[in-house]
Automatic annotation (TrEMBL):
Biased composition (Low complexity): 43-54
Top-rank taxon: Eukaryota
Residue numbers spanned by region Disordered: 1-90
Compositionally biased intervals (Polar residues): 33-42
Name this protein carries in UniProt: Uncharacterized protein
Basic and acidic residues: compositionally biased ranges: 10-31
The organism's taxonomic lineage, starting at the top: Eukaryota, Fungi, Dikarya, Ascomycota, Pezizomycotina
Amino acid sequence: MSFFKRLSRTRTDSYVEDYGDNKYRDEKYEARPTSSRRTNSQPTTPATALAPTEPDSKDMYSRQQGPQEAYGATRGLPNGVNGSTGHNALPPMNPVPMAPIKAEPMPDLLTRAFNEAVRPYSDKIEQLESQIADLQSYVEQMEQQRAEVHSWIDKRGLRPDVPPSIAKVMDSTTPDSANTLNAQLDRKITIVNFDLHRLQDDLNDSISASHFASAMSKFLPDITRLSSLPTGPRYAFDLILKLGGNLNSHGGLDTGDASDLAARRDFYGKLDQAMEEVVRRRFQENEEWAVQREIKRIEKTAAYLRNFGVEPYFPGTLDLMRRELEYRGQPAGTPPRYQ
Protein backbone atom coordinates (compact mmCIF):
# COMPACT_ATOMS: atom_id res chain seq x y z
CA MET A 1 0.00 0.00 0.00
CA SER A 2 2.74 2.36 0.76
CA PHE A 3 4.49 1.26 -2.51
CA PHE A 4 1.66 2.57 -4.77
CA LYS A 5 1.52 5.83 -2.83
CA ARG A 6 5.22 6.43 -3.48
CA LEU A 7 4.88 5.56 -7.15
CA SER A 8 1.98 7.94 -7.69
CA ARG A 9 3.80 10.75 -5.90
CA THR A 10 6.85 10.27 -8.05
CA ARG A 11 4.79 10.42 -11.31
CA THR A 12 2.93 13.44 -10.08
CA ASP A 13 6.12 15.30 -9.42
CA SER A 14 7.53 14.38 -12.86
CA TYR A 15 4.47 15.75 -14.62
CA VAL A 16 4.68 18.97 -12.76
CA GLU A 17 8.32 19.28 -13.62
CA ASP A 18 7.71 18.58 -17.37
CA TYR A 19 4.91 21.05 -17.76
CA GLY A 20 6.30 23.60 -15.46
CA ASP A 21 9.76 23.88 -17.08
CA ASN A 22 9.10 25.48 -20.53
CA LYS A 23 12.75 25.84 -21.21
CA TYR A 24 13.39 22.18 -20.87
CA ARG A 25 10.44 21.39 -23.15
CA ASP A 26 11.71 23.65 -25.96
CA GLU A 27 15.19 22.26 -25.84
CA LYS A 28 13.85 18.73 -25.83
CA TYR A 29 11.87 19.16 -29.07
CA GLU A 30 14.29 21.50 -30.83
CA ALA A 31 17.34 19.38 -30.16
CA ARG A 32 15.73 16.16 -31.38
CA PRO A 33 18.30 13.59 -32.49
CA THR A 34 18.27 12.64 -36.21
CA SER A 35 18.59 8.94 -35.47
CA SER A 36 17.49 6.67 -32.69
CA ARG A 37 20.83 4.85 -32.82
CA ARG A 38 22.84 8.02 -32.18
CA THR A 39 24.26 8.14 -28.65
CA ASN A 40 22.99 10.71 -26.19
CA SER A 41 26.49 11.53 -25.05
CA GLN A 42 27.04 14.07 -27.90
CA PRO A 43 25.16 17.22 -27.20
CA THR A 44 23.15 18.69 -30.12
CA THR A 45 22.35 22.28 -30.70
CA PRO A 46 19.57 23.71 -32.81
CA ALA A 47 22.08 24.66 -35.53
CA THR A 48 23.59 21.22 -35.68
CA ALA A 49 20.23 19.51 -35.45
CA LEU A 50 18.92 21.26 -38.57
CA ALA A 51 22.10 20.68 -40.59
CA PRO A 52 22.08 17.63 -42.88
CA THR A 53 24.04 14.70 -41.58
CA GLU A 54 25.60 11.87 -43.54
CA PRO A 55 23.89 8.56 -43.09
CA ASP A 56 25.55 6.01 -40.88
CA SER A 57 27.14 3.18 -42.76
CA LYS A 58 25.92 0.77 -40.16
CA ASP A 59 22.31 1.92 -40.39
CA MET A 60 20.06 -0.87 -41.50
CA TYR A 61 17.52 1.43 -43.16
CA SER A 62 19.83 3.87 -44.82
CA ARG A 63 18.29 5.86 -47.72
CA GLN A 64 19.97 6.06 -51.10
CA GLN A 65 20.18 9.44 -52.70
CA GLY A 66 19.04 8.70 -56.29
CA PRO A 67 19.09 11.15 -59.21
CA GLN A 68 16.04 13.39 -59.30
CA GLU A 69 14.00 13.48 -62.47
CA ALA A 70 13.34 16.77 -64.13
CA TYR A 71 9.95 18.35 -63.70
CA GLY A 72 7.50 17.35 -66.40
CA ALA A 73 9.51 14.32 -67.54
CA THR A 74 7.45 11.65 -69.20
CA ARG A 75 6.80 8.71 -66.96
CA GLY A 76 5.95 5.28 -68.21
CA LEU A 77 2.38 4.27 -67.74
CA PRO A 78 1.54 0.89 -66.28
CA ASN A 79 -0.50 -0.14 -69.33
CA GLY A 80 2.46 -0.06 -71.68
CA VAL A 81 2.00 3.38 -73.23
CA ASN A 82 5.07 5.43 -74.12
CA GLY A 83 7.35 2.46 -74.52
CA SER A 84 6.75 0.75 -71.14
CA THR A 85 6.13 -2.94 -71.19
CA GLY A 86 3.66 -4.20 -68.65
CA HIS A 87 1.51 -7.23 -68.33
CA ASN A 88 -1.42 -5.57 -70.06
CA ALA A 89 0.69 -3.43 -72.36
CA LEU A 90 -0.71 -2.72 -75.86
CA PRO A 91 1.57 -3.20 -78.87
CA PRO A 92 2.90 0.03 -80.32
CA MET A 93 0.79 1.31 -83.20
CA ASN A 94 1.88 3.66 -85.94
CA PRO A 95 -0.48 6.62 -86.23
CA VAL A 96 -2.67 6.52 -89.37
CA PRO A 97 -2.16 9.67 -91.43
CA MET A 98 -5.43 11.48 -91.91
CA ALA A 99 -6.40 13.01 -95.24
CA PRO A 100 -6.16 16.75 -95.20
CA ILE A 101 -9.55 18.37 -95.03
CA LYS A 102 -10.00 20.72 -97.92
CA ALA A 103 -11.51 23.94 -96.87
CA GLU A 104 -14.61 24.75 -98.89
CA PRO A 105 -14.67 28.17 -100.45
CA MET A 106 -17.16 30.66 -99.35
CA PRO A 107 -20.40 30.54 -101.40
CA ASP A 108 -20.55 33.07 -104.17
CA LEU A 109 -23.75 35.02 -103.73
CA LEU A 110 -23.72 36.21 -107.32
CA THR A 111 -23.38 32.67 -108.67
CA ARG A 112 -26.10 31.44 -106.35
CA ALA A 113 -28.44 34.18 -107.47
CA PHE A 114 -27.68 33.42 -111.12
CA ASN A 115 -28.38 29.71 -110.64
CA GLU A 116 -31.66 30.47 -108.90
CA ALA A 117 -32.70 32.78 -111.73
CA VAL A 118 -31.75 30.28 -114.46
CA ARG A 119 -33.28 27.23 -112.76
CA PRO A 120 -36.83 27.68 -114.19
CA TYR A 121 -35.42 27.96 -117.71
CA SER A 122 -33.15 24.95 -117.16
CA ASP A 123 -36.13 22.89 -116.04
CA LYS A 124 -38.06 24.03 -119.10
CA ILE A 125 -35.17 23.07 -121.38
CA GLU A 126 -34.96 19.61 -119.81
CA GLN A 127 -38.70 19.18 -120.30
CA LEU A 128 -38.46 20.19 -123.96
CA GLU A 129 -35.52 17.84 -124.51
CA SER A 130 -37.58 15.00 -123.07
CA GLN A 131 -40.47 15.86 -125.37
CA ILE A 132 -38.13 15.99 -128.37
CA ALA A 133 -36.76 12.56 -127.51
CA ASP A 134 -40.31 11.17 -127.31
CA LEU A 135 -41.23 12.76 -130.63
CA GLN A 136 -38.07 11.41 -132.25
CA SER A 137 -38.98 7.92 -131.10
CA TYR A 138 -42.50 8.40 -132.45
CA VAL A 139 -41.16 9.62 -135.81
CA GLU A 140 -38.87 6.61 -136.11
CA GLN A 141 -41.83 4.33 -135.40
CA MET A 142 -43.93 6.10 -138.04
CA GLU A 143 -41.11 5.82 -140.60
CA GLN A 144 -40.89 2.10 -139.97
CA GLN A 145 -44.63 1.73 -140.44
CA ARG A 146 -44.48 3.81 -143.62
CA ALA A 147 -41.78 1.57 -145.05
CA GLU A 148 -43.91 -1.48 -144.29
CA VAL A 149 -46.94 0.08 -146.03
CA HIS A 150 -44.86 0.96 -149.11
CA SER A 151 -43.54 -2.59 -149.26
CA TRP A 152 -47.09 -3.91 -149.05
CA ILE A 153 -48.16 -1.63 -151.93
CA ASP A 154 -45.28 -2.71 -154.14
CA LYS A 155 -45.91 -6.40 -153.54
CA ARG A 156 -49.42 -5.99 -154.94
CA GLY A 157 -48.40 -3.76 -157.85
CA LEU A 158 -50.46 -0.82 -156.64
CA ARG A 159 -47.82 1.88 -156.90
CA PRO A 160 -49.37 3.45 -160.05
CA ASP A 161 -52.75 3.68 -158.29
CA VAL A 162 -51.72 5.46 -155.09
CA PRO A 163 -52.69 9.11 -154.54
CA PRO A 164 -50.19 11.77 -155.68
CA SER A 165 -49.14 12.68 -152.12
CA ILE A 166 -48.27 9.05 -151.31
CA ALA A 167 -46.70 8.55 -154.74
CA LYS A 168 -44.38 11.50 -154.19
CA VAL A 169 -43.18 10.10 -150.88
CA MET A 170 -42.71 6.60 -152.27
CA ASP A 171 -40.72 7.85 -155.24
CA SER A 172 -38.39 9.93 -153.05
CA THR A 173 -37.79 7.36 -150.30
CA THR A 174 -37.84 4.00 -152.05
CA PRO A 175 -34.52 2.90 -153.57
CA ASP A 176 -34.65 2.15 -157.31
CA SER A 177 -38.13 3.60 -157.48
CA ALA A 178 -37.96 4.13 -161.29
CA ASN A 179 -37.35 0.47 -161.98
CA THR A 180 -40.13 -0.55 -159.58
CA LEU A 181 -42.66 1.88 -161.04
CA ASN A 182 -41.75 0.89 -164.59
CA ALA A 183 -42.27 -2.81 -163.88
CA GLN A 184 -45.67 -2.18 -162.32
CA LEU A 185 -46.78 0.16 -165.11
CA ASP A 186 -45.67 -2.26 -167.81
CA ARG A 187 -47.54 -5.10 -166.13
CA LYS A 188 -50.65 -3.00 -165.68
CA ILE A 189 -50.66 -1.81 -169.31
CA THR A 190 -50.32 -5.39 -170.45
CA ILE A 191 -53.24 -6.52 -168.28
CA VAL A 192 -55.51 -3.71 -169.49
CA ASN A 193 -54.65 -4.38 -173.12
CA PHE A 194 -55.34 -8.09 -172.65
CA ASP A 195 -58.68 -7.38 -170.94
CA LEU A 196 -59.77 -5.10 -173.82
CA HIS A 197 -58.95 -7.72 -176.42
CA ARG A 198 -60.77 -10.39 -174.43
CA LEU A 199 -63.79 -8.14 -174.09
CA GLN A 200 -63.77 -7.55 -177.80
CA ASP A 201 -63.71 -11.28 -178.42
CA ASP A 202 -66.55 -11.87 -175.96
CA LEU A 203 -68.69 -9.20 -177.60
CA ASN A 204 -67.86 -10.55 -181.04
CA ASP A 205 -67.53 -6.96 -182.09
CA SER A 206 -64.65 -4.51 -182.26
CA ILE A 207 -64.26 -1.86 -179.64
CA SER A 208 -64.06 1.65 -181.03
CA ALA A 209 -60.65 3.29 -181.19
CA SER A 210 -61.88 6.16 -179.02
CA HIS A 211 -62.72 3.78 -176.15
CA PHE A 212 -59.45 1.94 -176.55
CA ALA A 213 -57.48 5.21 -176.71
CA SER A 214 -59.29 6.49 -173.65
CA ALA A 215 -58.26 3.40 -171.66
CA MET A 216 -54.62 3.77 -172.74
CA SER A 217 -54.51 7.54 -172.10
CA LYS A 218 -55.05 6.97 -168.38
CA PHE A 219 -51.46 5.77 -168.08
CA LEU A 220 -49.91 8.99 -169.38
CA PRO A 221 -49.82 10.78 -165.97
CA ASP A 222 -48.01 7.82 -164.39
CA ILE A 223 -45.56 7.72 -167.31
CA THR A 224 -44.86 11.43 -166.87
CA ARG A 225 -44.25 10.75 -163.19
CA LEU A 226 -41.88 7.96 -164.15
CA SER A 227 -39.92 10.25 -166.47
CA SER A 228 -39.24 12.68 -163.59
CA LEU A 229 -37.35 10.03 -161.62
CA PRO A 230 -33.65 9.28 -162.07
CA THR A 231 -33.17 6.84 -164.99
CA GLY A 232 -36.93 7.12 -165.50
CA PRO A 233 -36.94 8.73 -169.01
CA ARG A 234 -35.47 5.58 -170.54
CA TYR A 235 -38.36 3.49 -169.18
CA ALA A 236 -40.95 6.14 -170.04
CA PHE A 237 -39.81 6.24 -173.69
CA ASP A 238 -40.48 2.53 -174.13
CA LEU A 239 -43.84 2.67 -172.34
CA ILE A 240 -45.17 5.46 -174.59
CA LEU A 241 -44.23 3.49 -177.67
CA LYS A 242 -45.97 0.49 -176.13
CA LEU A 243 -49.21 2.48 -175.75
CA GLY A 244 -49.12 3.40 -179.43
CA GLY A 245 -48.36 -0.19 -180.40
CA ASN A 246 -51.33 -1.48 -178.40
CA LEU A 247 -53.67 0.78 -180.30
CA ASN A 248 -52.14 -0.30 -183.58
CA SER A 249 -52.69 -3.95 -182.69
CA HIS A 250 -56.31 -3.23 -181.88
CA GLY A 251 -57.18 -3.30 -185.56
CA GLY A 252 -59.94 -1.42 -187.34
CA LEU A 253 -57.58 0.47 -189.66
CA ASP A 254 -59.07 -1.08 -192.74
CA THR A 255 -62.60 0.09 -192.03
CA GLY A 256 -61.85 3.65 -193.07
CA ASP A 257 -64.15 5.08 -190.42
CA ALA A 258 -63.50 8.82 -190.16
CA SER A 259 -64.35 9.00 -186.47
CA ASP A 260 -62.05 6.10 -185.78
CA LEU A 261 -59.20 7.72 -187.69
CA ALA A 262 -59.75 11.03 -185.88
CA ALA A 263 -59.64 9.29 -182.52
CA ARG A 264 -56.37 7.65 -183.51
CA ARG A 265 -54.82 10.98 -184.61
CA ASP A 266 -55.88 12.60 -181.38
CA PHE A 267 -54.42 9.79 -179.31
CA TYR A 268 -51.13 9.82 -181.24
CA GLY A 269 -50.94 13.58 -180.72
CA LYS A 270 -51.15 13.13 -176.96
CA LEU A 271 -48.47 10.50 -177.11
CA ASP A 272 -46.26 12.82 -179.17
CA GLN A 273 -46.52 15.64 -176.63
CA ALA A 274 -45.67 13.36 -173.73
CA MET A 275 -42.79 11.81 -175.73
CA GLU A 276 -41.15 15.18 -176.43
CA GLU A 277 -40.77 15.90 -172.71
CA VAL A 278 -39.45 12.40 -172.11
CA VAL A 279 -36.86 12.78 -174.89
CA ARG A 280 -35.64 16.12 -173.48
CA ARG A 281 -35.13 14.61 -170.04
CA ARG A 282 -33.43 11.59 -171.51
CA PHE A 283 -30.95 13.75 -173.38
CA GLN A 284 -30.25 15.71 -170.21
CA GLU A 285 -29.17 12.53 -168.45
CA ASN A 286 -26.37 12.11 -171.03
CA GLU A 287 -26.87 8.38 -171.23
CA GLU A 288 -25.54 6.20 -173.98
CA TRP A 289 -28.51 6.08 -176.30
CA ALA A 290 -28.77 4.81 -179.87
CA VAL A 291 -30.89 7.72 -181.10
CA GLN A 292 -30.63 6.79 -184.78
CA ARG A 293 -32.01 3.32 -184.15
CA GLU A 294 -35.03 4.73 -182.28
CA ILE A 295 -35.70 7.17 -185.12
CA LYS A 296 -35.81 4.34 -187.62
CA ARG A 297 -38.12 2.38 -185.34
CA ILE A 298 -40.64 5.24 -185.17
CA GLU A 299 -40.38 6.01 -188.90
CA LYS A 300 -41.17 2.39 -189.74
CA THR A 301 -44.42 2.45 -187.74
CA ALA A 302 -45.33 5.86 -189.21
CA ALA A 303 -44.91 4.49 -192.76
CA TYR A 304 -47.24 1.59 -191.97
CA LEU A 305 -49.96 3.87 -190.57
CA ARG A 306 -49.63 6.24 -193.52
CA ASN A 307 -50.99 3.48 -195.75
CA PHE A 308 -54.29 3.70 -193.82
CA GLY A 309 -54.43 7.46 -193.77
CA VAL A 310 -53.24 7.88 -190.21
CA GLU A 311 -50.60 10.57 -190.00
CA PRO A 312 -48.51 12.11 -188.61
CA TYR A 313 -47.05 9.70 -186.12
CA PHE A 314 -44.78 11.31 -183.45
CA PRO A 315 -43.77 14.25 -185.66
CA GLY A 316 -42.48 16.42 -182.78
CA THR A 317 -40.49 13.59 -181.28
CA LEU A 318 -38.78 12.76 -184.59
CA ASP A 319 -37.87 16.40 -185.18
CA LEU A 320 -36.41 16.74 -181.68
CA MET A 321 -34.30 13.61 -182.04
CA ARG A 322 -32.97 14.69 -185.46
CA ARG A 323 -31.95 18.09 -184.13
CA GLU A 324 -30.17 16.39 -181.27
CA LEU A 325 -28.16 14.33 -183.72
CA GLU A 326 -27.21 17.51 -185.55
CA TYR A 327 -26.17 19.14 -182.28
CA ARG A 328 -23.92 16.24 -181.40
CA GLY A 329 -22.14 16.70 -184.69
CA GLN A 330 -21.46 20.41 -183.96
CA PRO A 331 -18.48 21.84 -181.95
CA ALA A 332 -18.74 21.62 -178.17
CA GLY A 333 -20.32 24.53 -176.33
CA THR A 334 -23.18 25.09 -178.79
CA PRO A 335 -26.50 24.86 -176.93
CA PRO A 336 -29.04 22.36 -178.20
CA ARG A 337 -31.61 23.73 -180.61
CA TYR A 338 -34.62 22.45 -178.73
CA GLN A 339 -33.96 24.67 -175.72
